[in-house]
Amino acid sequence: MQTQLDQGLEGVAKEQAAGLVIAYEPVWAIGTGKVATTEQAQEVHAFIRSQLVRLFTKPVAQRIRILYGGSMKPANAPDLLAQKDIDGGLIGGASLEARSFLDLIKAAAATK
Q1: Are the beta carbons of 6 and 54 closer than 8 angstroms?
Q2: What is the three-class DSSP state of 106?
């Protein structure tokens, strides 16, 4: 993952970095409906944040939004979004049903 971040952010200036949004989804969660535990998701997001500090400085890294993209739904959104380094969700299938998406938005608004 460190190599992906280094390569993906190569050439991005510190002045540009604060406006970035990074999405993380476990490979095993793509299209499966499976979700990481809150601990697993936070651990990876904390690692990503630490690499952003290494690349850009702590103040810049804190401004970069890191989204979790592994099947976030209304039921798991509050726990995931309560994690220190998870700034939001990259919503896939849950956005296809209006009621589900609205419930997810409400859960997110209540958490952050």
Answers
A1: no
A2: helix
Q: What is the pLDDT of residues 25-80, one digit of tens each?
A: 998 888 787 788 999 999 999 999 999 999 999 999 999 999 998 888 888 999 99
- Cα(17)–Cα(55) distance, integer angstroms: 10
Q: Cα–Cα distance between 2 and 74 in angstroms, integer?
A: 30
CA distance 62 to 8: 18
CATH of domain 2-111: 3.20.20.70
Residues 44 and 24 sit within 8 Å (Cβ to Cβ):
yes
E strand or H helix that includes residue 4: helix 2-8
| Contact call for residues 72 and 25 (beta carbons, < 8 A) | no
Identity of the amino acid at 53: V
